[in-house]
Structure formats: C-alpha cells, structure tokens
Design a protein that fits this description.
single chain, mainly alpha
Length: about 160
C-alpha cells in the first residue's frame, strides 16, 4: 500500500488537463504547419516526380528544411531570446509542415515496387546524408557568423 492510497481523496493533487493553457501553442503550430505544408506542396507542383525518377522536390524540401532548422535552433538558443510562440510556430509548425520524411519513405517504397531499387537505395542514402550534413553545416555556419558578429567581425588587422 502506498502513501497515496491512504490519503483522503480531497488532499490528492488532481492532474491538470493536458491542454490547459496550450491553445495558443496548438494554434501557432497549426498555422505554421499550414504555411509549411503549402510551401512543400507548391514545390512539388513546380517540380513534379517523374515515374521511376529521383524525387528531387522531396529531396530538396527535406535538405532545405534541415538546413533552416539547424540555423534557426542556433539563433533561438544561443543568440536571441525568442518569444514563447516563435519556436512552436516556426520549428514545429512551418518546418514540420514543410519537411516530409513520410513522403520520403513512400517515395522509396514506390521506387522499389516499380522496379527501381537502385534509385530507391541512392535516394534513401542521399537524403539521409544530405539532411544530416545540411543541419550540421547550417548550425556550424550560424555559430561561426554569430561569433564573428560578437567579436566585431573581420580580423585583427582589418579592425586596426
């Protein structure tokens, strides 16, 4: 028997509702997601997938989204005290709606099922490598640029 089993019900702390006070966050994510998904859809219309071809629109959508998230997260965690709803709106909403790793998985399955397993494997590996490289390069570059800005930019000889 635990202590909570012996306490009268009136003294137990009731569990707060999960979404209490979260309506603004949910709205920010939803609005951002709608914007990001609209951008992804526009890109897919501009660069349609050819049967058996490499899914370039999805590839570049995910790589660009990963690069932006790398830079954005460095900015809001190391350089800028972002307002409460910026991260849910932009990182979770816009970039979550823009990037599409579910389509990436479906594209691989469709390439394999349609007799293009080589293209599917190249796409699988290339997207993974490019997305991870993009987020790392963007974060590292953003840090370097912020550090340069904090130190007045340029080299010692240029500032003298």
């Amino acid at each position: 028997m635990s202590a909570s089993d012996t306490e009268p019900r009136a003294t137990r702390n009731p569990r707060p509702p999960v979404l209490r006070g979260q309506a603004p966050v949910v709205a920010a994510v939803a609005l951002g997601g709608a914007l990001g998904a609209t951008g992804r859809y526009a890109l897919s219309l501009a660069w349609p997938l050819q049967p058996g071809g490499f899914p370039w629109a999805t590839f570049w959508t995910n790589v660009i989204g990963c690069a932006v998230i790398g830079a954005f997260m460095v900015i809001i965690t190391e350089a800028w005290a972002a307002p409460r709803l910026v991260r849910p709106f932009f990182a979770t909403g816009v970039l979550g709606g823009f990037t599409t790793f579910s389509t990436y998985a479906v594209d691989i399955q469709q390439l394999v099922d349609s007799g293009h397993p080589g293209t599917g494997l190249v796409y699988l590996a290339a997207t993974l490598l490019a997305a991870l490289t993009a987020v790392w390069l963007a974060a590292a570059t953003t840090r370097r640029l912020l550090k340069r800005k904090d130190h007045g930019g340029g080299t010692e000889g240029e500032r003298s």
